[in-house]
Amino acid sequence: MNSKTAELIEKDRRQLHPVYHPKSHAGALVIERGEGVWLYTTDGQKILDGMAGLWNVDVGYGREELARAAYEQMKTMSYTSNFSGMTNVPSTLLADKLAGYAYPGLNTTFFASGGSEANDSAFKTVRYYWKRKGQPGKVKIIARRGAYHGITLASTFATGIARYHTMFGPPMPEFVHIPAPYPYRYEGDLRPGETVGQAAARALEEAILREGPETVGAFIAEPVMGVGGVIVPPPDYFPQVRAICDKYQVLFIADEVITGFGRTGEMFGLRHWNVKPDILTFAKGITSGYQPLGGMQISDEIRETVESAAEGEAWMHGYTYSGHATACAVALKNLEIIEAEKLVERARLMGQRLLDGLKKLEEFPFVGEVRGLGLICGVEIVTDKESRQPDPALAARIFKEAQARGLRSRPLGNTLAFSPPLIINEAEVDEIVQRLGAAMDAMRV
Ligand SMILES: Cc1ncc(COP(=O)(O)O)c(C=O)c1O
After folding, report:
1. The domain that contains 425 carries what CATH number?
2. DSSP string spanning 306-339?
3. Ligand 1 near 116 CB (within 6 A)
4. 15-26, pLDDT tens digit by residue?
5. Domain of 347, in residue numbers
6. Would the pTM of this model clear 0.85, i.e. be above it?
7. Whose alpha carbon is nearest atom 3 of ligand 1?
């Protein structure tokens, strides 16, 4: 470690980092610069960022167009309140651009600063909606085990990963979890002749009936589960989920925080299955991480419910940074880049190449399954293929070996995740596979 890095690491001790433990933070990389898919540390290491930051730097690092968009907007009008009675030019243009952009009938956007705030806004809007509809008891939210929905109190307990709850309990009783449609290791009850998609959808219907449809306000799901281990659902799952939500008057929230804006090879994830949500939450890819921005889109029906309220029933929700002018200006430019450079199509093509390359690693005895959709892939590490016993310790070792070889992935339990910038090229995709393969080879000795 050079002296500059040592000095920065010492100063860094003044920060409490997200999901912090001193052990997990030990040996932290100090990143100084980024360009394309590459990160450069203060120590002189060049790292291929196989995670695009946290699944978000879709257009890659060092984009001058985005820096310029921020600069121009900051000079003109950096920030103003966006609370009722005032608006600004970029948020207006962005809301207009997003009207119907994801799915027809989702024409109204509310802006927040990130995915957790977006999901919290969705949960509150569900309560608001059902109250206005004369069904105030519909407050429960059904989510899946393994889901990650963020870190506010409500989104923490919507999240279905136990370690996020351990030290923050008791859990909020309004959140109910059901098995995820995880073909490699489905946790629910699977009847003879039933597909995992059917069984996982049936789990939703059973949960609604068990809790009572009059108490269930919404179901929330990531189209492809990210933090839970990159779980790609079987194709029959989401169409059934949509039908069940309709049958019991349960709103369907699509958490497209990772899958929105192209990552899966479609502009939005649920489009793969031709399914439309009532509320869509987004963040990350809308600005490629160049500015903090997230939000939710609501159906025309929900919009109408907000619109027609008496003044005493106003939708009293919003953040200081809702509709942040600079963040929205950057988002507009970022979407322009995604469209002009055809990054959605690129995610599909490069994603297939990445998946094909990673699949070859299934020859290692400890690679249980490789899966993915577009540029989001997971490599699941097991003790052996027969028992499918998860091996998070081995996954962590492979992660470290790969990082030493200049490849950044993310160990999620026993699954290594890959979600590189969408601008990645063929040679860089091949580098991911080659470096990961070399790290795995090192496990044999
Ligand atoms: C699917 C999903 N939803 C919500 C969030 C929370 O977003 P944020 O960290 O911007 O609050 C994340 C973050 O990784 C996510 O992956």
Report:
1. 3.90.1150.10
2. HHT--GGG------TTTT-HHHHHHHHHHHHHHH
3. yes
4. 999 999 999 898
5. 3-59+342-441
6. yes
7. 149
